[in-house]
Structures are given as C-alpha cells and as structure tokens.
Amino acid sequence: MDMNQYLEIFIEESQEHLQSLNQSLLGLETNPKDMQILNEIFRVAHTIKGMAGTMGYTKMTNLTHQMENVLDDIRNGKIDVSTFIVDVLFECLDFLENAVNHIASNGTEGNASADDIIVKLNNILVGKNAEAAVTAVASEAVDQGFMKFNQYDNSIVAKALEQGFNVFKVQVLLDSGCMLKAARAFIVFQTVERYGEIIKAIPKVEDIEDEKFENEFSIAIITSENEAVLRKELESISEVNKVIFEKINEVEVELMDSAQVNASEILTDGSTQNEEKESGEDLHSKKSKTGKTVRVDIDRLDNLMNLVSELIIIKTRLEGAGADTTDEDMGEAVEYLERITTSLHDAVMKVRMVPIERVFNRFPRMVRDLSKELGKDITLSLSGEETELDRTVIDEIGDPLIHLIRNSIDHGIEDKEERTKKGKPVTGNLYLRAYQDGNSVVIEVEDDGNGIDIGRVRKKAIEKGIISQSEADTMDEKASVELLFKPGFSTAEKISDISGRGVGLDVVKTKIESLNGVVEVETYSGKGSKFIIRLPLTLAIIQALMVTIGSEKYAIPLNVIRDITTINADSIRNIHGQEVVLNRESVLPIIRLNKVLDVDGSTADAEEEMTIVVVKKGEKHAGFIVDSLIGQQEIVIKTLGKYLSGIRFIAGATILGDGQVALIIDTNSLI
Amino acid sequence: MAANITNKYVVFKLENEEYGIDILRVKEIKEMLRITRVPKAPSFVRGVVNLRGEVIPVIDLRKKFNLQQRNDTGSTRIIIVTVDEITVGLIIDTSSEVLEIEKEFIEEPPTAIASIDHSYIYGIGKVGARLIILLDVSKIISVTA
Q1: Does residue A452 share a domain with residue A423?
Q2: pTM of the prediction?
Q3: Which ipTM value was assigned to this complex?
Q4: What sign results for the dihedral spanned by CA atoms A391, A396, A400, A403?
Q5: Which numeric CATH code is attached to B8-142?
Q6: Inter-chain residue contact A650 with B39, CB threshold 8 Å
C-alpha cells in the first residue's frame, strides 16, 4: 500500500502527541504519583507505537514498545518514578522528536540508534522486576483465554461461585455477512439477560452498541442455568455463527497461572500483553477525544481570508454607492450586507485563532534543561496560555520567545551563590504571560534576575563600534537599553551554548516587527527585567481612521488612537526643537504629518484650529496633525510588496471602495 | 536573465528610443491607472496602484533612466512585469508591438550609450534598420539607486 498519503497525517499527529507527551513528562516530574498523568503518557506512547508500526518505522516502534513496558510497571507500582527514569523518558521523547523531524524532511527515521535508550529502559525493567513480579501478582489482570478479568471482576465471580451460580465466558461469532451487528448483539444480550446477568463484555457494551467491533464479541455471564440451555438459546439466534463457552470454576487457581504468564511476558515482551493493553487503551483514547474537529490546510484558510477581504472591499464600495442614492431598499440591503460581512469576518478570524498554549508548551522543558545545564534553580510560571492569536503569528512567535527566555536564564537570573549573597531566594523566577489588551495581544517575559547592566551595555556598544564614546555619554537609559536590539550586539562575557552568539535580540526585534508588532524592555537594576511584546490580534483586517493630508488619504489603525482633539495653532510650543502642546495636563509631542510624509498642498499649517489625532505607543503618546478626518472604516491590510519593503513610516496599504490605494501610517516608527 | 529562452520581446518607446523586454517577464500592459504616491520611496517610484486587488509599485522609467520629465499622455502605458515573485509596473511613453529577434541579431551593448545607464541593458537588437535596446528587468528592479 502506498503510505505517502498518510505520511503527512502521521507527522502532524505524532508531533501533537509528542507535545502532549512533553507536557505530561514535566507533570510527572513534579507529581510522580499521579495516575492520570501516567495513563496519559502511556496512552501517547501506545498511540505513537501503533502509528509508527503502521507506517513501518521500526525504531520508533521498538522504543515506544519498551517505554510502554516501563510505564506499565510504573503504573502497577512495580517501579517508583525517579529523576533517572524521567530523564530516560525525556531521552525517549527527544529521540522520537528527532525521528519524526527526520521523517518530515527525509521520509526516513534517520541513522540515530535507539539502542542505548532501549538498554536503559531494559535496565530499569530488569533492575526492579525480580522482586516486583511476585508482589504484583495479586493485582495483575488474569489472563484467561479470550477474556481477562480484573480484580473487581474476580471478586464478583468468586462471590457468584460461592453462592452456587454458574459463571461462563461466552465468545459469540457473528456471520461475516451480518449487516446489523449491533442489533444482533443486542438480541444476544437480551437473550442472555433472561437467564442471568452479564458482568463484563469485550468490547464494552457502549462500543458494541456503536458497532465498534469486528464479527465477534465476548461476554461473561453469571447464571443459574447450565451451559446446554444457554447454548441452545444463543445458537438459535439468526446470523450467530458460533458460540464458544468456557465455564469458570475457580478464580484462585487461574490467578496463579496468570501470574506466571505475566512474569514471563514482562521478560520476553510477549505479544499477548500488548494486545491486552491495546483493547484497554483504545477505549481510553476514545473517551478522551472530545468535540469534533476537522483538519484544514492553512492555505485554504488563507484563501478564505482573502476572499473575505475582497468581499469587504466591495462592501465598502457599495456603501459609497448606497450613500449617493435615496433608494431605501438599497440602503437597507447594504446595511444588512455589512452586518453579514462583519460576522463572516469574525467567524473566519476565529477559525484561524489558536491558543498560545501551543507555543508555551515547549518552554517548561526548555527551562528545565537550561537551568539544569547552568546549575541554576529556576521556576517558570506561565499564565494566559488560553490567549488566542492568529495561526500565522503563532507559527512565527516561537523563536523570538525562545531567544528571550534563553536570554533571561543565561544573562538575567544570577547563580545560586550570587542570589544568596544578594539576599534573594535561591530559586529564580521566570514569568511568561500572555493577555489580550484591546486589539492586540501582549506577551511578557519577565525574570527576577539582575536586570540589564546599562553601563556594560554602553561599554560593549562602544567596543563593537555601534556607538561612539560621546554618543554613549549623552545617551539616556531608554536609548541604552535599545542598543541591545542592534545587530551584532551581545554582552555575554563568555560565549555559551545558550546565548551570546550575538544573533539574539536584533533577530527578535526584526521578527516581531515583521509581524507588525513591537518589543519593549523594562529593566530594574538588581531586580530583574521584563521584555514586552505587543502583537496585533489580526493581520488582515482592521478598523482604521481615514484622514486626509493635502489631497492624499491615509489610514491610521484605530487601536493605536487614544483620542482626537483640536488645538489652537498658537498653543504649540517649541522645546529643544520638538514641537509640543499641553494636553490633558501632560506634554504632548506634535508631529506634522504633512512634513514627515512630504505632502504638497496641505492646508493644516495655515489653519488656526488644528485637528490632532493622539496616538499611543505603549506608554508614549504623540499628536499627529492632519488636514481633516474622513471617518472610521474597516480596511483590509495589503503589503506594499518586497520591492518597497523598507519604506519608512508606512505599514502597508489598503484599497478603498472606489478602487484607490490608501497608505496605512506606521505610527510606531513615527513616535 | 541573460539566458533567454524565447526570442520574443515587448517593444515600447521612451523619449526617442525603442526598448524591448522579454515577453515572459511581462504579465500585461495597462492603460494609466490611478497612482497613490508613497512617501520616502525612491524618486523614480511614482507610487502604488491597485491591480485587481493587489497593491503594485510602479516605476517611472523616464526618471529611472534620468530622461527628461514630461506629462503623461493618452498613450502612456504601464507594463506589468514579474521577476522573482516581485511584481512591478513600468511607466512608458507608448507601447508598440511584439517583435521576434533572433539571437544572432542581438549584439553586446556598446560601452557608451549616452541616454541611460547601461547596466540595465543586456543587448541591442537589430530589426531591419531599427535598433532596439533590450532591458534586463531584474536589474531595473534590483538596483534601487
């Protein structure tokens, strides 16, 4: 069979499973006794084993198989979770991740060998098995032909036998051509229940009802009748091909037998053991799946988004046309169309939104590894994982965050000794927060380390020739911190594996700006530093204020506007070459857009009363002088393309209702 | 772009010279569109236009080649060209025809062409008595100076 068509699904699903494995392993480290986590890990290992097996990836299959054995023993209390075991399990995870990545790029598992890890897993198994096998006997499931009883079942069986009832295991085989298997099974159940009680069914009763079985199923019955009567009744049901009875006389004896079977299975990786798990685990995984989902290629979503964008442009055009006519019907229709396109836009947006959890998930592991490596004690606290962002942003934001977190761990948080010396708690804290703020999403990376050493930053910048000595002397704190984002800058004294290759923060900045976001730093000497990333909620469609400057139309994104006000021309003061006005009891810098954007024929300067759009960038504000306001409008952001990508002050373009192109002002670069 | 696969060229006029662009680079030829000026763009970038929902920069070839400026006329056209996924429009005086020029009729550019910077030129095509300056579009787009 051609497996290629399944390859993509395999890779995607494996990656998802590995991510949840990663999370569970971290959970296991802090809660070694948590059965739920263990079950989850087991489930994931099992699923991957199944998938890899189907695809013919033997290394992954072998490794996960051995993982299962270890996990099973942990689950049964034969092995206690130790740091060593968790480390080995993490190694397994790394191997699997590498294998999946290799498959994604080359289609094969790669040359890396899993043997070392398998040996380690084996050692864990063998080391504990000898004494554990005996003690675990009582709790082990009983292997009895086609159906296994657990402890609870056994106690019921024992009681029934005591009271003189007959206990049978019955395997029912239906005709292979049977059309309504569930209905047949139902008749079998009804028939049996006339004579006794069904205490167990494999598969589960619900699954049988849903026809989730092949042509056979098994039930365990407690009845006062004998085998012959039941057999006759069951065999008389049409489409029942064969009924196999097994009478159970003793519980204890079989327990002993199974103990031996189990012990040998553990040592020889017998296949029966796995089948047992398979049935159990399948049920588990079915249960944990909630909701119905569809996988959609992101390109299709992009296409859908583009179409919605086009629709909004044409809607705006209709609005313009509708305003000129007095036709009431037309006005109503346009209004209705507007409501629909807005809802449609929202709906498409929502489809594209993904919780940031997807990105945050990998950080606990990273922090754990890095802090171990550096001998630092660091607690990572996450919050706001449920905050949603556009899928494209999610895909891109991972690397910048890794940089920032590495930075904090490497440069920010001090050694244990140094922290003790300063009277700080030995354990350093790293906070990763995400939250929505108006039309943007804010991600903060904060540490309680030493903060940024401004003096050293300046010194380094001079050494690297980024600034001159005289520039450094006149530089304020804020500007100095900004130096960190200059290309080729790195303050690490020694180049470490983790950061300090000088390709850090400028890459972060470029990346975030390419996503139309901004990054800022707050630092407190000796107390820590905070990197704040602001990202737009959506990349494609925004609300904007349309303004005119001269004869040109420009758009200012609504989410950056604080308010709109008018001032008198003579209230503008000039302070150190910067024009300002007093607004709301604070000094507001004034920016004349007609000058900055070289617009001819602007009348704004001649007016006595000026219209000012007050725009914010983080905590900073500035007033933009415009000629006049047109109004608020939903606009579709288009890029200016590669050819004009470096243009200052312009964030992009949009197409107005009349087909004209209007530019979107990049307020961040102007403040 | 020196390695041409076809030998067909879109020929247009600028000032008194005739120029040719490899037909595979040309997406379409449009009549003048409404142009929105882009501040801080290089002077030869007249602005951006809306080409069926896409925002495309347009380059004024007269400015690019340091020719004398003149007002657009009814015959002014925008040739939309695509190079390495970058699409731009080129404003030209008038477009005339598509010509087939065989390789043997294409000569190396002379070192001194008075009118324009010859780094954009990769050859001179001879069609009868006419001389057609063949332009390397990728150079026009990549050299932003």
Answers
A1: yes
A2: 0.49
A3: 0.87
A4: positive
A5: 2.40.50.180
A6: yes
